[in-house]
Design brief:
Helix content: 10-25%
Radius of gyration: 19 Å
Shape: globular
Number of domains: 1
Strand content: over 45%
CATH architecture: Beta Barrel
Number of helices: 2
Largest sheet: 15 strands, antiparallel
Order of helices and strands: HHEEEEEEEEEEEEEEE
């Protein structure tokens, strides 16, 4: 990781170690930590997720920084169902690519998902949700996005037993319109996850965020190990998460080796 990336990580690590714990009832803090482990919990949150990766192959020494703004907003549809919206708005900074046109910064393509989820867990305690996912060609530069509209299904299922959460999220996106000169999109996303919440409301998690590109028969498989902590500054409750990422599989000229993530989530419990 380049110097600027390390500086951001260490500054946020220091903030985690010096910030006081959540000053509220212990049961409430435990419930918030549990909801954060559930992608479709009825909790308004705004994660700011900074990712850093370095590339290999012909793109040796290139790097990509990506700040994902990811608001999660639940809506109560009736006494039985919620709709949870999850939106990913990426701000991308690409540097040191041999092809100079790749070295751009700006907004990438937005991904929006809507999960329809029962308010009461199903038999066996399973929590689930399903709905559509949309890919919007919002990139501010053609090098930062696919110039395609995309659409497909998405679903998530998980179970929470004591301090443990285990489950998975998946979607598939096909391009349905857009620039005919750009490659079609036909991609499956798989995110199995497991996490454990300690008595101090520290969450330890492991997941992959794997994508299979059906057009090019290529997997991208980053494995993420995360430690996250609830804390509070004034009235604002937040969670800071630090992630080490290893690229187990990626395209020849794609990200490789180790990367990192720092995520600050603002919570707005009802």
């Amino acid at each position: 990781m380049k110097t600027s990336g390390w500086m951001i990580v260490w500054i946020l690590i220091a903030a985690t170690l010096t910030t006081p714990a959540v000053a509220q009832d212990d049961d409430q803090a435990a419930e918030l930590a549990k909801k954060l482990a559930n992608p479709i919990a009825s909790l308004i949150s705004v994660p700011l997720q900074y990712n850093y990766d370095e590339y290999g192959g012909v793109n040796e020494d290139a790097s990509v920084s990506r700040l994902n703004i990811q608001p999660v907003i639940p809506f109560s549809m009736n006494e039985d169902w919620n709709m949870i919206t999850r939106t990913i708005m990426p701000l991308v900074d690409q540097n040191d690519f041999p092809a100079g046109a790749m070295n751009e910064s700006g907004l990438g393509d937005i991904t929006a998902s809507q999960f329809f989820s029962p308010k009461t867990p199903a038999a066996g305690g399973w929590i689930w949700g399903a709905g559509p996912v949309e890919l919007l060609p919002t990139a501010s530069d053609e090098m930062l996005g696919g110039r395609k509209w995309g659409l497909g299904p998405t679903a998530v299922a998980l179970k929470q037993v004591g301090p443990w959460t285990i489950g998975g999220l998946a979607n598939h996106i096909w391009s349905v319109d857009g620039d005919d000169d750009r490659a079609d999109i036909n991609a499956t996303f798989l995110q199995p996850f497991v996490s454990y919440i300690t008595k101090t409301k520290t969450t330890i998690g492991l997941n992959t965020e794997s994508t299979y590109d059906w057009e090019n028969d290529q997997w991208s498989v980053p494995v993420n190990a995360t430690v996250a902590q609830l804390f509070k500054i004034g009235p604002q409750i937040m969670q800071l998460a630090l992630t080490a990422r290893y690229w187990a599989e990626s395209p020849d000229d794609g990200p490789e080796g180790w990367g990192g993530r720092v995520q600050l989530t603002f919570l707005f419990p009802k």
